[in-house]
């Protein structure tokens, strides 16, 4: 076992505190990673504050992890000491079900082992990236291309793949009109990626406060959803709408913005139950659907794509002692556009 410094919530809804945790011994297929950076995802806050249900405590959040391999097990073939690597939202899966075999480990029929707030196959709680080191099976580790610095690459392990996967699945590209609802940590990456794929991109944000940033990062258009005129002007406009916000929407209003056979894809999960009228999807073969992260193969594809197009996240680099303040700022939408922890400050 290796003892490392970490930041953890001791109980639900409590502030995070500096502490120590134990990392498992290095297995023959494992790599030990010195974590250099870890992004703060809104889902970290949902889980620490138990907005999505009971958590496992103490909880060390963090699933946007980048760092360097410092040790490799005897049967590791994909990585060597010194490699620049990343770890995303999952660290294992059953590997036997049809989804795992198809490279869709995020939809493992036996449930993926999430990077934190889960129980691993050894029966122990998993701890995330707000820590100095992590031990992960090499099959769930990603290679960070040289074209990406580790700090701006960290949010790609969640925010990047969470938007890339549905954009690819629903064929965003030239001739397609894509709208991104919300312009935060996920939304700004959705705009960058959709633009790089060649789609015509529109941001649908509550206000025009971030319009200049949206246009700078690749949006062709930017509208305020607080203005009712937006929904009349844009009726029937989009092939794909990626909803990145984690609060309930007027789904009928947003579905009305889709073209025939268009899809409204939810990648944020509200803490509250939502209601949808089925009448809002009839008549134009519209779809209300969802998307999780991507599998390991697709996540590596996303990282390579982002390196080729120089698409790092827009970040605010913080010290570990600022985590609780950062949580409050994320909850108040006061970040442009992803907080990233410099783990050297742990």
From TrEMBL:
This is alcohol dehydrogenase (NADP(+)). Keywords: Metal-binding, Oxidoreductase, Zinc. PANTHER family: ALDEHYDE REDUCTASE (PTHR42683). It catalyses: a primary alcohol + NADP(+) = an aldehyde + NADPH + H(+). PROSITE patterns: ADH_ZINC (PS00059). Gene3D superfamilies: Medium-chain alcohol dehydrogenases, catalytic domain, NAD(P)-binding Rossmann-like Domain. Residues 14-341 form the Enoyl reductase (ER) domain. CDD domains: CAD1. Its EC number is 1.1.1.2. The lineage of its organism: Bacteria, Bacillati, Actinomycetota, Actinomycetes, Kitasatosporales. Belongs to the zinc-containing alcohol dehydrogenase family. SMART domains: PKS_ER (SM00829). InterPro entries: ADH-like_C, ADH-like_N, ADH_Zn_CS, CAD-like, ER, GroES-like_sf, NAD(P)-bd_dom_sf. Its cofactor is Zn(2+).
